[in-house]
Amino acid sequence: MIIYIVLDNGPNQYGRMKKCEIKMNRMERRKRRQEKKEDKKILKIDRAKENKSDFKYIHRILNTNIDGKRITPIALTGIRGIGRRFAYIICKVLKIDPNARAGLLTEEQCNKITDLIADPEAHGIPTWLLNRINDFKDGKNYQMASNTLDTKMREDLERLKKIKSHRGLRHFWGLKVRGQHTKTSGRHGVVCGVVRKNK
User: Fold this and answer.
1) Which residues 6+ apart lie within 8 Å of 152 measured at CB?
2) DSSP string of 29-78, one letter each residue
3) pLDDT in tens, 16-72
């Protein structure tokens, strides 16, 4: 914030105006420092809450143990199929503080998280953000996580093998699928070079 003070015309008018600007900048800096101190105090209060009996060191969401010491979005990335961006959006939609520790989550909040992952479109999350769009069987959009992600991946591979597509056969043979070179890389422990015969 800059305040210009109108002075009488004189030789030092510009210099005086400059001094006022610098003073206001100093005041802004002081305010920012005070705000940072207040934020640190809030964090200290959160850490003090961690010591209380309400704090849980391990939460169980979607058959996955979540570390209570880490901040909520980063802790949620421990669930298979949920990345950083999706975890932050979960916090935003459910109005959970992203800077708070996961150990401070209540059982009700944990249940809401599981409901959101089960049906994200009902909670207003856009389809392009989901990890399974236009499912092969029913054409719906899903956010696959934990055990359901593993089962769907297994089903997809079995389907590709069954119809004997190129991708399915490459998976079946254990070779690289996405067009990589295989002459010198990805030999999986096979001996390189000439094998000598024992005399």
Assistant:
1) 132, 144
2) HHHHHHHHHHHHHHHHHHHHHHTSTT--SEEEETTEEEETTSBHHHHHTT
3) 555 555 566 788 888 888 887 777 766 665 555 555 668 889 999 999 999 999 999
Q: Does the pTM of the predicted model rise above 0.90?
A: no
Contacts of 3 (CB under 8 A, 6+ apart): 20, 21, 24
Bridge partner list, 61: 64
The H or E element spanning position 17 is helix 13-50
Element containing residue 160 per DSSP (H, E): helix 147-162
- Under 8 Å between Cβ of 24 and 3: yes
